[in-house]
Design a protein that fits this description.
The chain contains six helices and no strands. By secondary structure, it is mainly α.
């Protein structure tokens, strides 16, 4: 009998989402006292300005990863004026790409999504490992 992950191709989007979901579940089950992460400096460098402001310590990273999980699971992205302005700027920088073949554009975005999901999974696992180090538990 094949495992559920074996059904999917190694580069499957569903597999990437399952890995991320599994890492988040492990993090939530492991980190019983998230307050222990307060004031522990973060080694991670976040790209977003908003993320940089809120993720100065591991506790901020923990909250950010949980918020991202909620967005991934709900599939809803809140629309506000600030993000709309950023999207407009982003569309202007991607104009040459918008004129390309739709299949090439799809592959570009799919590779980006795989990259983001892999990075989030790795950050989640790293945060869980750091928590285990803080409480003195062996992995």
């Amino acid at each position: 009998m094949q495992s559920a992950d074996a059904k999917f191709n190694k580069k499957s989007l569903l597999l990437a989402l399952r890995r991320y979901s599994s890492a988040i579940s492990d993090m939530e089950q492991t980190i019983l006292l998230p307050s222990l992460l307060r004031d522990v400096p973060s080694d991670e460098v976040w790209d977003s300005e908003a993320a940089e402001e809120s993720c100065e310590d591991l506790y901020g990273n923990y909250l950010m990863l949980k918020a991202i999980r909620n967005t991934v699971e709900s599939g809803l992205i809140p629309l506000d004026d600030h993000k709309t302005k950023k999207t407009t700027v982003l569309n202007k920088t991607l104009e040459p790409l918008l004129n390309t073949d739709p299949e090439a554009l799809f592959r570009f975005h799919l590779r980006g999504l795989f990259s983001v999901m892999s990075e989030l999974t790795e950050k989640t696992r790293s945060l869980t490992d750091k928590y285990m180090d803080i409480i003195g538990a062996a992995n």
